[in-house]
Amino acid sequence: MSSRPAPPAQVPTLTEIVQPGPAGALASAGAAEQNPAVHDLQALLVQRVMQSLTPMLEQHVQEAIRQLVLTHADALMPRLQEQARQLARSLVAQAFEQESVHFQPTPKA
Q: Could you give the CA distance from residue 17 to residue 26 in angstroms, rounded to a whole number?
């Protein structure tokens, strides 16, 4: 092993290695479930976390939807413009046809 320099005296050092014990962890979790005060505290914590997350999630979802709508609108714009041009041409042509009936040249005598 490589030797490391000792840390300064003010820095706490690990002097004991703790091995995880699944039986102990399960026992404490079971005790927490049986204790109503702990259950109420957990429920309160979940409620408060959800209250703080909900506005942030809504904001992110709205922004994502806004970006999707803008992207699709940009993609549709050339097609919509072409359809509007064709419709305008057609309507102008129809209007000229209807009005040209009123302005038939009269033959000169």
A: 20
